[in-house]
Amino acid sequence: xxxxxxxxxxxxxxxxxxxxxxxxxxxxxxxxxxxxxxxxxxxxxxxxxxxxxxxxxxxxxxxxxxxxxxxxxxxxxxxxxxxxxxxxxxxxxxxxxxxxxxxxxxxxxxxxxxxxxxxxxxxxxxxxxxxxxxxxxxxxxxxxxxxxxxxxxxxxxxxxxxxxxxxxxxxxxxxxxxxxxxxxxxxxxxxxxxxxxxxxxxxxxxxxxxxxxxxxxxxxxxxxxxxxxxxxxxxxxxxxxxxxxxxxxxxxxxxxxxxxxxxxx
Amino acid sequence: xxxxxxxxxxxxxxxxxxxxxxxxxxxxxxxxxxxxxxxxxxxxxxxxxxxxxxxxxxxxxxxxxxxxxxxxxxxxxxxxxxxxxxxxxxxxxxxxxxxxxxxxxxxxxxxxxxxxxxxxxxxxxxxxxxxxxxxxxxxxxxxxxxxxxxxxxxxxxxxxxxxxxxxxxxxxxxxxxxxxxxxxxxxxxxxxxxxxxxxxxxxxxxxxxxxxxxxxxxxxxxxxxxxxxxxxxxxxxxxxxxxxxxxxxxxxxxxxxxxxx
Lengths: 265, 261
Fold this sequence. Notes:
Chain A has 6 helices and 13 strands. Helices cover 28% and strands 28% of the residues of chain A. In chain A, helix 5 (178-189) packs antiparallel against helix 6. Chain A starts with 12 loop residues before the first helix and ends in a 21-residue tail after the last strand. The radius of gyration of chain A is 25 Å and the shape is elongated. Chain A is an alpha+beta fold. Chain A has one domain (41-245): Glutamine Phosphoribosylpyrophosphate, subunit 1, domain 1 (4-Layer Sandwich), CATH 3.60.20.10. With 261 residues, chain B is α+β, with helices and mostly antiparallel strands. Chain B has one domain: Glutamine Phosphoribosylpyrophosphate, subunit 1, domain 1 (4-Layer Sandwich), CATH 3.60.20. Helix content of chain B is 37%, strand content 22%. In chain B, strand 9 (209-215) and strand 10 (218-222) form a beta hairpin. In chain B, helix 4 crosses helix 5 (184-196) and helix 5 crosses helix 6 (228-240). The longest helix of chain B is centred in the middle third of the chain and has 22 residues, at 78-99. The model of chain B is unreliable at 241-261 (pLDDT under 50). The interface between A and B is medium-sized, with 12 and 12 residues.
């Protein structure tokens, strides 16, 4: 041991050889492991609206790699049990992780007989705990999740959950760009919880189709192919896959004014 | 002299296919004082006989609350039951935390069964020396399960475990078909009556009787002076209605006691 007051307690060079300064100068560029810093392949908005007897929800089938439209067949509406569908936007690999977690959950629950199926509010609670746990490990699942379905009181249930563990509920929900573009359109149909009682399935579906069209017009990370799901408390889940945005108009917008530096005050 | 070579651990089968340690564990249940469980459509009830080791000592707790909708009663080694109830409480909390829903009674019973079964298949461990009746109320209604250290869990309409429980079982077998539509007080009355069939020289009193009932409004456990109304109810009916068919079981009770000895 060194007895020099400035080196006291360190291994003696005469005994152990010189200290290898490469150790303290080692570059810190290669991490032993790395947490998610950003999403890689992403899915854009999920939009949903409540109606009198249930919920209509939609999400397109695109997986974007940055601005590249990389995958065109990603299904982002995931059914869980008989009356819940989870719509996921954000990182697609994390979407697949959540998909596996929910599948495992369902299988484990069925071991104890089918008499206690998970309802939408249970799935929402679980996802919230999962997402919050991961953000607390500083390794978030990079998603925004909409849980739609029927709750344990047999009422329509719609709630939002995201990578920070934030959760809230509303008669209309949208993630990502949809929160800016689709929500105002959907709120014209159902603004408050009281309004839901007067909304029909057809009105809700029409509002969702209209919103998907607007999103395809204006969201550069969207596609015109999408899935739509209706969860009705009487008839259950009905999926419509491979839908296309219809009745678009790509005419020259000669009468439209007010963009960019031509804007008049 | 005869010596059993196949009971020195819990994992070795005898040539006749028996696990003696597990069977001995089932015997431990019969050393415990009696407990009765019964269900109606809307309620599940436990009635149990508490024991005190000596007159100066307190009575041993029989009914353990697991959650607002779930309780167990034990017969056998009480410390083993504490291990199981702590485990079950943890699982009940886990269900509330992860899913915001109370644990289902079936799930709770299966978890206990799996835990007990492990001890019958691992070297160096012993089976739990305690039997349990599990009552609870969940979205699929009221439930009663019997748990055994062998890892068996069975669903019952009514059942009894512990010392001289055969008397109670006979009473329950005779009457269970009428239980479905009974209200809470009537169901408890039948439970007290069933427990009374297990007695030999003693009487049910406020200090040795414990009652638990669970329904859609949650779990209620009655101890000490709170059980008095239920004991009185039964006593009064017995005195007042000797001609009543149900109360004619007095003679039979003696027979049962004779058989149980």
